[in-house]
Amino acid sequence: MVDGGPEVGHPFAVATNRPDDATFRRRRLVCVALAAMAVLGVASVADGHRQVDPSATSRPRDLLAAPDSRSTDQATDTTAWPSSTSPGSTMPTSTTPERTERITLAFGGDILPHGPVNEAAAQFGARTGTAYDFAPMFAPLQPILSSADLPLCHLEVPLAPSPDQISSYPVFGAPRELPAGIASAGYRGCSTASNHSLDKGLAGIHATLGTFDALGLGHAGTARTPREAATPRIYDVKGVEVAHLSYAYGFNGIPLPADAPWAANQIDPDRILADAHAAHTAGAGLVVVSMHWGTEGQPSPDGQQQALAPVLAASSDIDLVIGHHAHLVQPIQRIGGTFVVFGLGNQLSNQRSTTQLDGVVVIATATQHLDGHYSITALEAVPTWMDKASWRVLPIAAALADPGIPEPLRGDLVASYQRTIATITQGQSVEGLTADPLPGA
Fold first, then answer.
1. pLDDT band for position 394 (50/70/90)?
2. Residue 75: what pLDDT?
3. 192 to each of 86, 179, 202, 330, how far by Cα in Å?
């Protein structure tokens, strides 16, 4: 797997978005990336649950087939959910109808627990009396996630069916304690369709979803029964029903079980469109589609992403597309009015390269218009950094607000922020996209 790259931040022109700590109260419009590049001096970087019976079958479409990019997902292998309020925001003048209500959704990058991550969790657990404690790793994200009405993660790996089956690259099986750490950060659920979904077979899917259920976490993308597979995950968010769908390009050559072809969702445009339509027909006010797609180590959308994104964005049943898998931050675009987040990079991992430590949390604002329908009207990017010295995921702006932060780490954070902003804008202004500003910007 390839690493991600550094980037520098700069002041943005217009403040926006959600109130939080003093650090988070002002949000500024993401300017045309030329402004970012002026700072950088470089070019931008490339590359209730409702039962529904979808009518489409899951068959691959050759035209949009995923590239043959075998997963590496490698790393150096050396040793009460908070009630949230509806945040306000100041947005540019718009021609859309007057807003009457809004909710916010948050999405994080890949959670990929390599061996060293698990070892660090075991060290945290030794202090708290548990076998593994992942909560300290996610703790810095809690203020960000708790400000959103529906925070959702992407868990790339299944849980190990038993402690003796915990494993890392290339066949993953995470400790059963991982979802408790995810929940401690404020996440209410996760997408689970990925190229590693079948790493531990059906037993791994059962272990994962059973643990999620026990913690009250939602999940989408893998299933234990045909009925569960045909039931879209719908969250009640302040009275708004939000459907979350999840699909992966493939499963690293592991075939779906002959007796359980519904166990994990594979990307098929017809099926995705049918599922989204079924969710909307069932009453979902918003439909979010999580896509495990793209080429690992490539910061630019690949051919499959470029072909699929307009198809999904053109659907009146899909309100937001959230991408994972490249393990690098990828661009955010607005295609026909629909936001497409091609890739959020890594959130928690032990991957090697500097740019693989970059990540971003996106906070989506959904607004109800006078005719009653909802749409995603704004995205806020919150760049993050995987600090392997402390094994914590750091929201960059919040971390830099601490005057006691060591200078070497401060330099890493600023560079990561700059990389992320340059990559998500790709030299163009994205209407409705804002960013968490650096302190003093």
1. very high
2. 52
3. 27, 12, 13, 20
> What pLDDT does 315 receive?
98
Multiple choice CATH, 96-412, 3.60.21.10, 3.30.70.100, 3.40.190.10, 1.10.1040.10: 3.60.21.10
Q: Residue 16 belongs to what H/E stretch?
A: strand 15-16
DSSP 216-249: T-EEESB-SSHHHHTS-EEEEETTEEEEEEEEES
Q: What is the pTM of this model?
A: 0.80
What DSSP element (H or E) covers 178? helix 178-184
Per residue in 235-266, pLDDT tens?
999 999 999 999 999 999 999 999 999 999 99
Q: How confident is the model at residue 371 (pLDDT cuts 50, 70, 90)?
A: confident
C-beta neighbour count of 16 within 10 angstroms: 23
- On the question of pLDDT at 99 being above 90, the answer is no
Q: What is the dihedral of CA 221, 227, 232, 238, to 10 degrees?
A: -120
Sequence-distant (≥ 6) Cβ neighbours of residue 213 within 8 angstroms: none
Calculate the alpha carbon distances from 336 to 83, 104, 151, 292 in Å.
34, 21, 25, 22
193 within 8 A of 149, measured Cβ to Cβ? no
Answer yes or no: are the C-beta atoms of 191 and 293 closer than 8 Å: no
Run of H or E including 111: strand 101-111
Q: Model confidence over 7-29: pLDDT tens digits?
A: 222 222 222 333 343 333 333 33
Distance CA 433, CA 384 (A): 17
Q: In a 3-state reduction of DSSP, which class is residue 395?
A: strand
Domain residue spans of the chain? 96-412
Q: How far apart are CA 332 and CA 335, in angstroms?
A: 10
Residues facing 366 on adjacent strands: 103, 376
Q: Cα Rg for the chain, rounded, in angstroms?
A: 20
Cβ within 8 Å of residue 258, ≥6 positions away: none
Q: Which of 346, 292, 352, 295 is nearest to 111 (CA)?
A: 346
